[in-house]
Amino acid sequence: xxxxxxxxxxxxxxxxxxxxxxxxxxxxxxxxxxxxxxxxxxxxxxxxxxxxxxxxxxxxxxxxxxxxxxxxxxxxxxxxxxxxxxxxxxxxxxxxxxxxxxxxxxxxxxxxxxxxxxxxxxxxxxxxxxxxxxxxxxxxxxxxxxxxxxxxxxxxxxxxxxxxxxxxxxxxxxxxxxxxxxxxxxxxxxxxxxxxxxxxxxxxxxxxxxxxxxx
Length: 215
Ligand code: SAH
Prior knowledge:
Blueprint: H1 7-22, H2 28-36, E1 57-60, E2 63-65, H3 68-78, E3 85-89, H4 95-103, E4 106-111, H5 114-126, E5 132-135, E6 148-153, H6 162-166, E7 168-178, E8 183-192, E9 195-205
Helix pairs in contact: 1-2, 2-4
The protein binds S-adenosyl-L-homocysteine (SAH).
Residues 63-66, 89-90, 92-93, 95-96, 110-113, 116, 137-139, 154-155, 208, 210-212 line the site of S-adenosyl-L-homocysteine (SAH).
């Protein structure tokens, strides 16, 4: 079925962006990208009418697309710039991937569920987003493509995997929700070849778990 982005969709999307601004999202490139990328393309047909509500929705394989505020907040912490080389762990629907692509980043994204990986691949190619998508266990990162300017994890990690910190460039940052039932959004800076610093932490996020191995 061909996906259509109507005037109504565009209107709902700009209202969503206004709500994000009211909640203190300030990064212009993130707001612009979220105004342009049709979130409804990433949802199953049962949820399309609700695509611009501030909710997470099921995307299959027991996983969810993050709510728009969480996508905006994580993206802003990443401070994405054109040509940044970014690794995303947890492609899910591909929506976060599409936002980073729209900003002009070179995105590498990994998903552990084959079905989601395949669906995200279709969704992203429909939007001419040429992210590099991988099916596998993101716990290990992508050593063959490292180092990265920035790494974003979109599932809740019980601890920060060393392999991800290691795959940052010096001066690079990792944005990762850390915790079991609830997570602290944590921003880590790589300060030297073997040194890291926690830059900031924000309470009370709820993500699906970051799990080992692929499915
Ligand atoms: N960024 C996604 C969020 C999806 S939810 C979106 O915008 O839709 C988090 C995703 O992380 C899920 O799809 C889950 O399967 C995936 N995930 C969890 N652990 C993983 C791992 N070790 N490697 C790769 N993906 C993982």
